[in-house]
Structure formats: C-alpha cells, structure tokens
Amino acid sequence: MFSPPLPSRRAVLALAATLPLVAACGRTAPLETIERQAFLQRGTPEQRAAQIRQAGTELGWRMMDLTPGVIRATLLIRSHSATVDIPYDATGFEIRYVASTNLNEGRYNGTYIHPSYNFWVRHLQRRILATPVA
What we know:
Layout: H1 9-25, E1 29-30, E2 34-38, H2 45-58, E3 62-67, E4 70-77, E5 80-87, E6 92-101, E7 112-113, H3 115-130
Antiparallel strand pairs: 1-7, 2-6, 3-4, 4-5, 5-6
C-alpha cells in the first residue's frame, strides 16, 4: 500500500502559524468611525439631541447626555457591548468609538474590531438621518 510522504516540520509550523490569522479574518474588520455627517433637514441643537436620542433608543442603544453637544450611546447584545460618543451640533454629527467588550477589539491595537460593531454603527447613523426633527 502506498503512503504519501509526511509534510516537513517547517510546512506544519508555517500552516500552524497562519491558521489563526485566517480564522480571525472573518471575525474582524477595520474599525469604522462615522466622520462628519450633515443632517438632511434644518434643526436646532436641542432638536438634534432629541433626534439622536430617539434614533438610538429605537435601536436599543442606551443614550446619555455626556456634555452639551455630545451624547454617549451604549449597545448591549448578549455578552457584547459597544460604546460610542456622538458629538453633534445643529448641522451635523459624528460617531466615535469609545469602548467595547467581546468584539475582538484588543487583538490589533484598536484598529480592527468584530464586523458587527461596524454594522451597528452604520445602522445607528442611518436611523439618525431617517428620524424626523421634532
């Protein structure tokens, strides 16, 4: 019976070294920051705060006024959490990463995170823009 030659030790070590990187590729993505986004309608800073709070609350984010012009939002899903700051004024807003738990955030010095984080933040951005000014 023919038996194929065994792989060299070097080949086995190379494969073992690359497997974690390949496995991690599907579970990490570059950390996204929503840069300055203009609101679609006119409004006052107070109306913007209400608009942002309403949008986040509708999506399950906990919204808290951090300072005038900045809302801190935290999303808790099972054992995962994401916290962002949303600086805003009458004309626009940003969404900035603050912290997270169980989203692979520490793996690459804060430059990569689980893709779900980016999905949640983009969904929050779209909801803020779609929420009418009160």
